[in-house]
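User: I'm curious whether this sequence folds into something compact or stays loose and floppy. Could you predict its structure so I can see for myself?
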Amino acid sequence: MFNAETFFKQRLTEHMKEMNRYLRYIFNQHLMIAMLFLISGLAYYYQQWLEGLTPDFPAALLIGTVFGLLASYSPVRTLLKEADMIFMLPLEPKLHRYFKLTIGYSFFTQLYLLILAAAALAPLFFAADLGEGFASYLLVFVVLLVFKLWNLHMNWWMLKIRNVNIRRIEQTLRLVLNVGSFWLFLRGNLIAAAVLTVLFVVLLFVDYTITRKQGGLAWDLLIEKDQARMQAFYRIANQFADVPHLKTKVHKRQSLVNLFTSRVPFEQKHTYDYLFRITFVRGGDYFGLFLRLTILAGVIIYFIPNLWVQMAFALLFLYLTGFQLIGMWKHHRTIAWMDLYPVAGDTRKRALLSLLQQLAIIQAVLLSFVFLLRIDVVGFALALVAGLAFGIGFVRMYVPKRLK
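Assistant: Here's the prediction. I'll summarize afterward.
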């Protein structure tokens, strides 16, 4: 006889085993040391920034926006698999308990984000004098937990709606009400916050009423959402170990492809130069990752006042970017026709090293220009020389050891 709790425990055990298989690779790498350095540096300057906080700084809006976004982002991990659409469909009436347990699991797995955000924003809350001590902030956190639970249930109900426009409108309304409620609550406008909270509860009942009229679960949508989140985890894990379950997404980006490949000679020995450039632009998320890390590094460097810490962050982000882009080496590992290319064996490694070096140079130049925006010519020269030296040294000395 089917038991929903036993089925959930079985799925959760399989899921945890799969996650642990890759997490031990992720947390054993040098990347964690780099992230620890990054967090320590940001914490130091965060503390300095708080000491100079002015009374007109919109702290309530900032904290309210962060808490509202975290409450709105409430995906439900159903732990479903593709085959469930066929084999579990007849058991749908008996799966009510199973899905309640998955909502509880989703809440606890997202709890760490709330705790980290609350811990990071607590100094700002007290520095801006938004409440009456620790008890006030604890109350805000409890409210955040309640909103998180409401959002999780609303998100689950809306997954029965196939019309994507209705889901987007509901998500937008929910986001506005979440952010508005926290902002007004932190400002001390309790009546206005209560009004928005009542509107939020009305939306909750509307969601519930609409979904009660739906026939059954949208199995394909549930599986698609769950698979997308698992693929996102696999893309990170793929930077540290081979992930056979990874499915890569291909983007068109024809103009960027032309930009990156127009100078590659149409010769046999440049086969892999052409392939890796297209892979960087169109395959996976390599181009987006390069862009995001460069922008984030530029913003951090711009706002940090100390030259040597700016330099350290520039080198740190050069390392993080280069380390992530090494994943291109394994991007085509399951495609057999690459072994049939009539080209010399070392051209593949040479092509990737060449591309990584060019990207490191581009990023080093872009980050050094941030110093010019601060009218710091000495910093620009130092960052350019150090960035180029680090980028070239990283690609020529470190990367070849990881290409196996």
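Summary: The chain has 15 helices and no strands. Residues 239 and 324 are 6 Å apart (CA to CA).
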